[in-house]
User: What shape does this take?
Amino acid sequence: MKKSYLSKTNWVNFATYGMVIIAFVVMQLMGSAGMLSSTIRGQLVPICAYVVMALSLNLTVGILGELSLGHAGFMSVGAFAGAVAAAALPISSAPLRLGAAMLIGAVLAGLVGVVVGVPVLRLNGDYLAIVTLAFGQIIKSVVENLYIGMDAKGLHASFLENRITFTDGGRMILNGPMGVNGINKISTFTAGFVLTMIVLVVIFNLVNSRAGRAIMALRDNRIAAESVGINVTKYKLMAFVTSAAMAGAAGTLFALGQNTITASKFDFNMSILILVFVVLGGQGKMWGSILAATFLTVLPETPAMRELRDYRMLVYAIVMILVMLVTNSDKLKGLAGRIIPKGKGAADNG
Amino acid sequence: MKKKNLAALLMAGAMCFSLLAGCSSKDSNASTPGTDSKESQSAGNEGGNSGAATIKIGGVGPLTGGAAIYGNAAKGGAEIAAEEINALGGIQIDLRYEDDAHDPEKSVNAYNTLKDWGMQVFLGSVTSTPGAATAAESNADHMFYLTPSASSTDVIGGVANPLTGSVDIERRDNVFQMCFVDPNQGSASAQYISDKKLGEKIAVIYKNDDVYSTGIYNSFSAKAAELGLNIVSTTTFTEDSQTDFSVQLSDAKNADADLIYLPTYYGPNALILTQANAMGYNPKYFGVDGMDGILSVDGFDTSLAEGVMLLTPFNADSEDEATKSFVAKYQEKYGDVPNQFAADAYDCVYAIYNALKDENVTAETSASDMCDILINKFTSMTFNGLTGENMTWSAEGTVTKSPKGMFIQDGAYVGMD
Assistant: This one.
C-alpha cells in the first residue's frame, strides 16, 4: 500500500478524472434511456460551466494562494465575447463554432487577465482581491454600455449609446444593459464534459510541473521562494492568466447554453458563489471543487427544495452553513478517519 | 473550541428543523394555493362533473428577492381566478407557481420544473428579462405562453428595435401578452404629454439595466423627438444605484425641468419623489404602469404622490362590479390592495379558461395540441377582463387594449380625461 506505483497525488488526480468520466457516462446513459427530468437536463450545461469556474478559481485561490473576488468578470468577458463570436462566425457546424467561440472567449479573458494581473501581482498582500473586486464591476459597466450588431457588412459596435445603423437584414447581438437575447443554444453536455477534462488536464499538469512547484512555493513562503531565485511576477501571472482563460471558456460554455444573458448576471454575487464552491470543496482540492459546484447548483432546483417554496433559499443558505461546519469540524473528520481506513480521508493537496 | 463548534452545529440544526416544521404545518393547513386548488378540484369531480378536464397551468415569477412584490402579486391574482373557476365546476384548473428570483437562468430551471410536473399551459414569466428566456424555451417546446406582465418586445419577438429598425428576435408564435407592450406605453406617454401640454421642459430618469425601463424610454424618446417635446435632462440609474437619486434630480433641477418622466417601477419612484421633496424640488411626475403600486409602498408619504400622473390598465378603486369583487377577495386573502400585476394575472387565467371552455380539451390533451388550439382561439376571440373591455390579440402576440391616463388625488386614482 505504501509503496504503490502511483504517488498519492497521482492517485487523487486519476480518481478525479475517473469521477468526471463516470459521471458523464452515467448521465449520458440515463439521458438516452429517458430517465432524466427536464430540470436536470436543463442544468447539465450550467453545471459544467460552474464546475470549470470553480476549478479555475481554485487554481488562483488554492494553488497560487491569491484571493480573487472578481472571477465572474472573466466569465463575463468569455460569455459576451463567445456569444458575439458564435453569432458572427460563419461556421455552419455547431460544435466547431462552439469550439471557436470558446477559444475566442478564453483568449480574450486571458488577455484581460494579463491587463489586470501585470500591475497588481507585483504587489504583496490583498491588493489582488481589491483590484479584482473593482474589475468585476468595471466589466459589468463596460458590457452594459456596449452595443454590437451585425449585418451583411460585418460587425458594428457602439459605446454608451446605440448609434448603430444597418443597411438591411441586420440584427443587434449585444444590446447594452439588455444583454444578448435569443442566443442559439449550441452548448452541449458533451462539450461541457470535454472542457472540464481539458481544464483538469491543464491544472494537474501545471501543478505537477516545475512551474507548478514554483507557484506553490510562492504560496507557501514567498520570501523563501524569492531567495532561491523564483521569478515572483512571472509565476503568479502564469497561474492567474491560465485561471482567467479557463474562466473565459466556462463563460462561453455558459452563455451558449442560455437563451438570454445580461451583464448583471455576472456580478459580485456570482464571484462569491464561485468562491463558495472553492472554499466548500477545499482549497487546492480539485475533486472538492467539482463536487461542491455540482451539489450547490443542483440543490436549490431539486423537487424537495422546490416544495419548500418561500423558504427555499433560506434552507439553501442553512445547508451551506451546515456543510461548511461539518467539513471543518475536527470531531467529524476524526470520525470519518476511523470509518474510512487510513490515508484516504486526508488526501490533501491535489 | 470543539464545544463551540458543536454548539454552532446544534444551533444551525435547530434553525433548520424549526423551519422545516414551519413549512410542513403550513402545508397541512392547506393555506398554500396548490393544495387548495387540488382539493377543490377533487371536490368538483365528486360533484358529478366527471367529464370536466383538469388543466395544469404553471407560472414563473420572482417570489423571492428584490422583485418579489411583482411575482407575488401576479401569483395572488392568478390564484383567485383559479379558485373562482374551480368553484364553477366544469373545467378545473390546477395552478402552480415557481420562483425564479428575477434571473433568466433560474427562470428556465423553474420552467423545466413545471414541465416535469406536467404543465399544459404556461402563464409565462412575470418580469421581462426572465420572460425572454422562458419564451424562447417554451417556443422550442411549443407550449402556449400568455404572460401577465412581461411587456418587453424581446418576449414576443418579431418587433423592430426602435433605435436601429432591425428585428433582433424572430416572432415566437406561441407567445402572447396580457399587458400592453413597452413601445406602446412609451409612445402613448409622449403623445399624452404632448396632447395635454403637461410639460414645457421634460426630464427623464430611467433604469438602464432593465429591459422594461429601457424599452419604454427608447420608444418614448423616438416619439418625443417626432412630436417636438423639449427633453432637457436624461439620466439613468441601475440596480446597484437605485437608492440615491441626488445626481439625477440635481441634473433635472438645474435644467429647470417642470415634468419628470419616470418609466420605472414604483419602488425607485417612491424614493425619487421623497428625495426630490427633500431637495425642495417639486416638479410634476408622469409614470407608466410600473408606477402603479406607489401608494402601497411601506413608509412612503402618500401626500408626495399627489398629482402624479400614470398610465395603467387597472384601477383598484373602480366602481366596476368585477373589480370590486376581485379587490375584496384579494384584500381578504393577502391583506393588500391588488396592483395591475395581480389584475393582469387574474385576466390571464380567465382568458385561458374562456378559450379552453369552447374547445374540446381534456386532461389528456398534450401541451403541444393545446398550444395550437389556443393560438387559433386567441387570435380570433374577444375577451372582457379587469384590465380592459373587448380585448383582442394580434398574431404578433400583442393585446389591443390601450393605456389609460390616471392621476393620484387624495390617495386614489382618478381618470385623467
Remarks:
- The CA atoms of residues 183 and 230 of chain B lie 19 Å apart.
- Chain B touches chain A through 54 residues (CB under 8 Å).
